[in-house]
Amino acid sequence: MRPPPPPLPLLLLLGTAALAQPRELAPAGTQCLGHECFAVFWASLPFSEASERCERRGGHLMTVRSTVAEDAIALLLQNREGQLWLGLTLSPSLSCTEPKLQLRGFRWVTGDRSTDYTNWAPSEKRCGERCVTVSRELRWEERRCEEPADGFLCQYTYGGSCPPLSAPLGVPVTYETPFGARGAEFTALPPRSTASVAALGLKLLCEDGEGAEPRWGRDTPGAWPCGLGGGGCAGTCAEEGGRPRCSCAEGKVLGADGRSCRSPCEGAQCQHHCVIADGSFVCMCNTGYRLAADGLSCEDIDDCAGEPSPCDQKCVNTEGGFECHCHSGYEMVEGHCERLPHCWNTPCQQLCEELPQGYRCGCRPGYAVDPLNATLCRLHCNSSECPPVCEDYGRCRCPDGFLLDEEDWLCMDIDECESGHCPFNCTNTPGGYQCHCPLGYQDRGVDCVPVLGGSDEEEFSGDTDLVLPTGVPSRPPPKAGRLHPGVLVGIAAGALLSLLAALGLGFHLARKRCGSHGSMEYKYSGPREKEMGLQPMPPAQKP
Questions:
Q1: For residue 173, is it within any domain?
Q2: Contacting residues for 196 by C-beta, under 8 A, at least 6 apart
Q3: Model's pTM, two decimal places?
Q4: Are 125 and 96 in contact (CB under 8 A)?
Q5: 467 pLDDT higher than 60
Q6: Residue 431 lies in a domain
């Protein structure tokens, strides 16, 4: 049972929609050069509609950038009269043309102004005419875009093209391009063009090669008659038992379509390398890997697991290889571990001396090894000078009994004897001084007192804490008896002199103590060797 016909209003609506669809125009002429095709359409249309007709089939209005394009226009026009739209429009930033400019302010529909060729008709500056046409004389003329021209020129650009098919004599081939051009005379055919061979019942398609050059093909696998374009074979075509068959060169295999040739490794899933062997392929791996059980993937080899080890000391396996490392105290030299000198990582503060079985710490001049820690160095001064100890922020210190000489940057010994520290004889020592009692006097700690009978010269130092022992008489003392009055006078005079001497000594000791808190702040006094203790000094800048 037939369905009922559609109602009349619906038919009228469909008919109106069909009439509203623009009829596709067939080009009146086509020229294909390399990977570009140019077509002429004779239809009275304004600029915008002509541009839309070109774009609908993947092209654009023609850009004429060289004399080659100009020659193509001459062949397309064939001396026919009329004005044809070109792909030139005036830039929106300009209201009038600029005759001094190469393109007069116009730009191509592709958005650029690049060109090696122009052919403007003579004219002055013109306004309101924002599109361009070309005529049989090949002159470019400005024209209002809204006014229809007699036709338009389209340009189609492709990534490659198929050559026309070679055919046996008397077997015609008819071609049709994707933009509607039909004919038998083409120098190149763009992808998606068709070739019809009625005598053989064949219809072929120019297939895009997806990275390779386009080739003629069809949906049915296998070769077609060898006399037509070599049967479509990428290799060679031969008739076997009256049937065409393709074959490939050595090292290639026939593709799934029965016409193309490919490498056996094409599409192989080898993780690293594919090697052709006997018409097939095998997978291989990089050094440090071995082929897995699936024959395609590669797995790492543990190079450190073998015996003997590839390294002198420590081996670390890595992806595809290994690394050699050395134990502490060794270093890598040309692939081998060699022992470092004993001194390479010692705790010595200053110097290190290599010994056959180890090392020994040493110190620079002015320093001595600390008796409590052989790795440390303590400041050690000679009889007159030594280097100071300076901190990072510029503060320097000298040992007791020495002062900093900022000119030579040395700690210099202080001569205390020049400051009157002793009431009698004085001897300067490194970092200190010694006081001596004259003949007939004995040291009593802070003073020299006369002794009866006399003795050798005694001495005392500036260190008030040190008391020297009194000498032992060499003969027994005299018996007690009445004293002569002159002796009493002498004893009284001696006592007075002793009192004066004690006062003088106390005065000098007071002066020494005051000096040690002022300008002599760094002085250490005493009969012993100077101590290593350091006292702070005011900040000093090195010259």
A1: no
A2: 173, 174, 175, 176, 202, 203
A3: 0.52
A4: yes
A5: no
A6: yes
Of 126, 129, 188, residue with least CA distance to 161: 188
Number of domains into which the chain is organized: 2
* Structure tokens belonging to residue 245: 């068959």
Q: What does the alpha-carbon distance between residue 476 and residue 447 come to, in Å, rounded to a whole number?
A: 25
Alpha carbon of 348 to those of 371, 388, 406: distances in Å? 14, 20, 29
- The full 3-state SS of 87-135, as one line of letters, equals EEEECCCCCECCCCCCCCCEEECCCCCCCCCCCECCCCCCECCCEEEEC
Q: Which residues contact 139 (CB under 8 A, 6 or more apart)?
A: 119, 120, 121
Q: Pick the closest to residue 135 from 64, 59, 55 (CA basis).
A: 64
Give the pLDDT confidence of 312-343 residue by residue, as tens digits.
889 999 888 889 999 887 888 888 898 888 78
Query: Which residue stretches of 119-193 are H helix?
Result: none
- Domain end, chosen from 123, 157, 191, is at 157
- The whole-angstrom distance between residue 22's C-alpha and the CA centroid of its chain comes to 59
Residue 59: other Cβ atoms inside 10 A: 22
Cis, bond preceding 308 (omega within 30 deg of 0): yes
Token output for 527: 């009969």
Of 157, 189, 216, the residue at which a domain comes to its end is: 157
Cβ-proximal residues to 481 (8 Å cutoff; 6+ apart), any chain: none
User: Going by C-beta distance under 8 Å and a sequence separation of 6 or more, which residues neighbour residue 498?
Assistant: 447, 449, 450
Residue 392's domain comprises 385-469+498-536
Residue 237 lies in a domain: no
Q: What is the pLDDT of residues 374-388, one digit of tens each?
A: 899 877 776 677 777
- Structure token pair of residue 422: 């002793």
What CATH number does the domain containing 135 carry? 3.10.100.10
Residue 538 makes CB contacts below 8 A (sequence gap 6+) with none
Cβ-contact 292, 306 below 8 angstroms: no
Nearest to 90 by CA among 61, 127, 121: 127
Is 443 domain-assigned? yes
